[in-house]
Specification:
- The protein has about 180 residues and is of the alpha/beta class.
- It contains seven helices and seven strands.
- The strands form two sheets. It has a five-stranded parallel β-sheet.
- The chain is globular.
- The chain starts with a helix and ends with a strand.
Length: about 180
């Protein structure tokens, strides 16, 4: 099953590289949760890495940067991703164990660019304007060092502001 999924991803990547003027090949598959990987790092290396490498290789053959998206605590496989040819890791969820953006930058910043780090779970929905500005400034100052690079972004998609409406039949959320 994993091989067939990888076959599809490889073919999709090949077609995208041939048909569009891409700046990078964006890949991803959430392999971690808020506290740890969804499987052991050794299981990831056995089951996922060989297939993901095939997708990375498509981008490399086309001279593209490789970006990889996985939410959560992926710290344990960052060295593997670098070895595989990763250029940009997204997102950086600093509230997950091992994922402090400044620490990741210190450890891997000469080999990897990071994208993300502005917390969408606590800071953006609940923080003051001043707290968001301070946290963003801290990221920019700490991540803007030699090597790798940094793309300022939220730690995940920022949902639209919603307001609740009620009717006699149900309660709904509206954008």
């Amino acid at each position: 099953m994993l091989g067939r999924c990888a076959d599809f991803a490889v073919e999709l990547a090949e077609q995208a590289c041939k048909q569009f003027p891409l700046d990078w090949l964006w890949t991803g598959d959430d392999v971690a949760g808020q506290q740890s990987m969804m499987m052991s790092p050794s299981a990831w290396r056995d089951l996922i890495r060989p297939h993901l490498q095939r997708v990375f290789d498509v981008g490399r053959r086309h001279g593209l940067w490789i970006a990889y998206h996985s939410c959560g605590a992926v710290r344990d496989i960052i060295p593997d991703l670098i070895e595989m040819g990763l250029d940009v890791l997204n997102p950086v969820q600093g509230n997950c164990p091992g994922m402090d953006p400044l620490e990741l930058k210190r450890q891997f910043g000469d080999k990897l660019a990071f994208m993300g780090g502005v917390d969408t779970q606590g800071l953006l929905p609940h923080g003051s304007v001043v707290a968001v500005a301070r946290a963003t400034d801290r990221l920019l100052q700490g991540m803007n060092t030699d090597g790798g690079g940094y793309i300022l972004a939220a730690s995940h998609t920022v949902p639209p502001k919603r307001r609740m409406t009620t009717s006699s039949r149900c309660t709904k959320w509206r954008a």
